[in-house]
Structures are given as C-alpha cells and as structure tokens.
Amino acid sequence: MFNNTLSLPVTDDQPDEFVAKMRSRPRRKRRKSDFRGRTELANRTCKQLTRWWPLLLFLTALLLLAFEASKIGWRSKTNKSEFQKPNVVISPVKKSETNLNRLDAPRCLKLLPPEELQHLDFPLNKDSSVPIKKVIYLSESNAPYDINSQQELGTTRFNLFTGFQTFHQREQSFKVNETASVHCGFYSEDGGFTISDEDKSYMQTCKSVVSTCAFGGGDNLYQPIGMSDTSLQKVCYVAFWDEITLATQKEQGHVFNEDRFIGKWRIVIVKNLPFRDQRLNGKIPKMLAHRLFPNARYSIWVDSKSQFRRDPLGVFEALLWRSKSVLAISVHGARSSVYDEAKAVVKKNKATPEEVKVQITQYHQDGLPEDKRFDGNKALNEASVIVREHTPVTNLFMCLWFNEVVRFTSRDQLSFPYVLWRLKVLKNINMFPVCTRKDLVNSMGHIRKAKPLG
Fold first, then answer.
1. Are 194 and 149 in contact (CB under 8 A)?
2. SS3 label, residue 200
C-alpha cells in the first residue's frame, strides 16, 4: 500500500525567512501610503496658496505702506519740533513744570519729621576752637594798591571790585593767624556791584538766607517748595538780578510787586557788574554771602538752574548741626582728581587750554598732590548747592576761593580742592553724596545763555 501522506522537508531557516518576507510587505505598503498622504497634503496646500496669494500679497503691501507712513509722520514731527526750538524757551520749561510742585520723599537726605521741623530754631553761639577769630577785608581805605603791581598779575580780571592782589599777598592770605587779612571783593566804592540802599536795608535784616542769581538774562526763577511755616518766618529768599535779566523776565510776564517780591523770592537788582564774564559776576553772591548779608549766621546757595525744594532749617540741622559741620557741599559725581577735572574742562571747552595750564602749573608748583581724597573726603566737589555757617574760618575760605577764581579760571571745581588743601584749619566739612544734592534741588538745566557785558 502506498502511503498517502506527503512529507515536506522543513528546516529551521525556512519559517524565519517566510515570516520575514510576510512582515516586510506590509511595512513597504505603509511607507508608500504615508508618502502619498504627505504628497496629497502638499498638493492641497499649494492649491490653497495659489487660490489666496493675491489676498496675502495685498495684506503684505498694506502693512508695508502703513509702516512707511508712520515713519514719515514721526520724522515730520521731529523736524517740526527742531525747527521751532530756537523760538521756544518752552521746551525745557515744560519738561520742568511737571516737577515744580512735586515734592518727593528724600532718598538720602535725613530730615526731621514735619512736627519737629516746625519747632526748630538756631542753636546758641558757641566759642570756636579754631585759631581764626577775626577776618579783615582789605579795601581801598586800609590797603591802597600800587598801580605798578598790576603788571605782576599778568591778568586783567583784577579790578576795583576785587582789589589787585599780588602773589605775595596771595601767599600771606593762606597763613593762619588769629586775625586774617584778605582781599574779598567790594574793594572800592567805584568797583561796581551796586545795590540800592533799600535792598541793603532788607539784606541786613536776614539772619539766614537762601540765595540765587541770574545775570545776563539767564535762567528763570523757580519758586522754592517744601519749607515749613517756621522757616518762612526765619529765612530770607533773595534772588540777585541785573537789568538785563529784569528786562528778560518782564518779557516773560514775571514782574515783582511793590515789595519787590515774586512769590517767595525778594528780588535785588544789581547795577554796574564788575566783570564782563557773567559766570564771574555770579561768583559774587555765590561765594561772598557773608559780605552781602553781614548779619546772617547761615546761608544756602542754589544755582539758578535749580529749584530748592526742602525746608532750610531742616537742611541746616541735617547737614550742619547734626554732624557739627560748618560747611556742606556735594562731592563731584564724575571725577575725583583736580588734574583729571582740568583735562575735562579743556575737553568740554569750559575754559581755554592756556588759562587752565597756567592754573594747574601753579598748583603743581605749590605742591598740590594728585590724591583723589583729602582727609577721607573726595577731593573734587560740585558747587551748585553750598550750605554753610558764617564763621571767621568759612568766611576766610570763601574769600580765598573767590580770589582763586578771579586770578585763574572761573571753573570753581578746580580751585576748591586747592584752597581746602592750603587752609589746613578747615576740617569739619560735610562732603555729602550726589543723591543728597538731588534731594535738595530739582535741576532744570539752563534755559538760555547769559549775555556777556559789552
């Protein structure tokens, strides 16, 4: 009998090869299907883009047109404002007017609470331990000058207002004695800086004063803010103007009343200014407050570009009485060395290279060190705000400082460290930081350039 079964030879490799072939076929089909799906999607997308591309192109063109139109409008606005700038003193004023009545809390200046400020009073006079007890101001009557001595000076800025200080007199003025003799302006009755008897009488009543000046039609007058009722009763606010500024302010509608006040400021008109350089004329009220206010014990100087915005008695307490200082002035915000400042003055065209060289050469010959700190304080100052007690030593200091400004350049930052270095007895100075100065005043910037005297 035959065996009806069919035997098939089977090896171990055969099933694996068969399974592998079966598995590979569906994977190839799936890849082909995926590729077709992506192709169909791309085709549909292309059809959509082909259908809507005019609209997309139109929107893009519209956006570009709007962008260019906005640029043209901005340029037109800018050019218009630049064209109008010479006719307007409004631009800086508008910028500052938004801050004129805003009194921010001080960040660095530590004032007493308002209720304590209302009860502040001047401290009693105390005997000073400094060796200088009296300062004699040289004048035509007690120190007549030799006309030949002017040839020694090598400058034309000394005149009948300043007196004609020789180098020998300069050296003698730095020597400390119980009685000091020094040129300090107001040398001759014919020297200029003429003030009416009415104004002099008012100034003699001031026991303390906040003062400023604007000569040559310079800056506007900014009303002080932040003062207590007590300070209004005990502190004078005096602004010195010349006739050019008076006429300029009248054109702006700023006219003082019958009592010569504009707001809190008492206006004092000065005639016959002694210098052609208005910056130098401005140093007189800035540095010689003790000569202008002979009965004042304390003073605060504020540059004309700034608005004073703190209580004066509170400032005296915070910067002088609390630290037992007699002079308070801000440190310089950018530099520390006199020699670095001299380079900056020349670079910024604040003075000629020749006059700066004369001054710095003299200071170097006198031995002024290049140190950036004197007695722990920064050597360079910024004098837009000066707070001081009127004592013999501070009065002498300000006279010496004024004489250096007259003899050399009117950039008082260069001469302040030198005088401080030479006058060893002035120790108790409060060199406050820049942030304190910003708390004291609201700086507006100069509105217009002062006109020099003809």
1. no
2. helix
**Structure pTM?**
0.77
Beta strands in 246-326 (DSSP E): 261-262, 265-271, 298-302, 306-308
- Residue given tokens 């169909």 in the structure block: 40
Phi-psi sector, 14: left (phi>0), alpha (psi -120 to 50), beta: alpha
The DSSP secondary-structure symbol of 87 reads G
For the segment 425-438, what is each residue's pLDDT rounded down to a tens digit? 998 999 999 999 99
| The residue type at 74 | W
Q: What pLDDT score does 257 carry?
A: 86
CA distance 195 to 243: 12
The rounded distance, in Å, linking the Cα atoms of 320 and 429 is 9
- Closest Cα to residue 301, out of 404, 221, 212, 394? 212
In three state form, how does the secondary structure of 341-367 look? HHHHHHHCCCCCHHHHHHHHHHHHHCC
Q: Residue 364: left if φ>0, alpha if ψ -120 to 50, beta else—which one?
A: alpha
263-296 residue pLDDT tens: 999 999 999 999 999 999 999 999 999 999 999 9
Q: Where are the beta strands (DSSP E) in 171-326?
A: 179-183, 194-195, 208-214, 236-241, 261-262, 265-271, 298-302, 306-308
Residue 267: other Cβ atoms inside 10 A = 21
Exposed e or buried b per residue across 100-135, where buried means at least 16 C-beta atoms within 10 angstroms of its C-beta: eeeeeebeebebbeeeebeebeeeeeeeeebebeeb
User: Is the Cβ–Cβ distance between 335 and 380 less than 8 Å?
Assistant: yes
Q: Distance of CA 67 to CAs 71, 74, 133, Å? A: 6, 11, 74
Which helix (H) or strand (E) element contains residue 143?
none
Distance CA 171, CA 119 (A): 45
